Amino acid sequence: QVQLAESGGGLVQAGDSLRLSCAASGRTFTAYTIGWFRQAPGKEREFVAAIKWSGGMTYYSDSVKGRFSISRDIAKNTVYLQMSSLKPEDTAVYYCAATIRSGSLYATVASASRYDYWGQGTQVTVSS
Length: 128
Prior knowledge:
Layout: E1 3-7, E2 10-13, E3 18-25, E4 33-39, E5 46-52, E6 58-60, E7 68-73, E8 78-83, E9 92-99, H1 106-109, E10 117-118, E11 122-127
């Protein structure tokens, strides 16, 4: 059973940085893709970033490209989302998710429906 646990959320000011962590357990994640999604009140869940566990290929949405960075620590089974130059519109609950389904196209990796395992989420609030 795959388990994902997010941490690192909080209240910050616009322009600040924050690092989210996603601790993964229950499997060997070599064949997995780990993604970060977010959901703001009244909005649909949207893709933020993803990383292939094997090889480390990364994907970013246009809204965070250049500001956010996703990485993994294989020894710790943890994926990080380093967020910089935060904006009020980044305010949301951030979820990490895992999928073993194959596919390397951005459209595939960015689709929430392809992820089978989800964490509980961590709140990020950016004040102006």
